[in-house]
Amino acid sequence: MIPENFIFALGLTIFAGLSTGIGSTMAFLSKNFNPKFLAGSLGFSAGVMIYVSLVEIFVKAKDSLIIIYGYKQGYWLTVLAFFGGIAIIALIDWLVPSFENPHELKNLEDPVSDNTVHNKKLMRMGMFSALAIGIHNFPEGLATFIAALQDPALGVSIAVAIAIHNIPEGIAVSVPIYYATKNRKKAFYYSFLSGLAEPVGAIIGYFLLIRIFGDTVFGIVFAGVAGIMVYISLDELLPTAEEFGEHHVAIYGLIAGMAVMALSLLMFV
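Above: the chain sequence. Below: its structure as tokens.
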């Protein structure tokens, strides 16, 4: 049986995933590109994701598992699932070669040669970035989708944070492909396509879990989601924010994200 808010959760996941297209647009309008604004936005996204993961998602997962297994065993299972989520996303990261890694963003204003060999290398980098981002977006899509199914307000917060997180990924795909082909449509298409992995990951993950979905599975998946989001924040968002702007801009964004998330959660108490 499909939940009532299935379409809502899927819509949020599509919004989060396809925000890679925003990154493409920013890359093409690079003369108006503001690195400090992007750094602050990425820091803000990290703050939202870290706060909601540790204060809200982890706690809900723990409460769910404690009801079934008791305090000690339920808490242990929550912690193991949390670090299991970190291990999954870290393994995905490890399997992606550093040259093609979507975290390795290049300066948007770097001059690019017209050399054919160089262009082929850029095209390869862009295509592998699209593939790598697609792989990364599978667990992110499931995280957004499951959160929105359980708590629509929480789902909105996570979707916005992941949408901001996907902007530089769109840049990572579109810039090398554009400079290799001089074709904006092709660059935008591949960037946009990489974001589709998010809703696809959500649907596949959901229908794989639906037969066994209960309080235990919910608690384990939710704790794993918290781990995935903390890892993404510390490994991707903050380093990328510092790469684009000053250290304090990223930190101020981080604190602002935590404060906004805290206030939004207090509104629903």
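The two ends are 30 Å apart (CA to CA).
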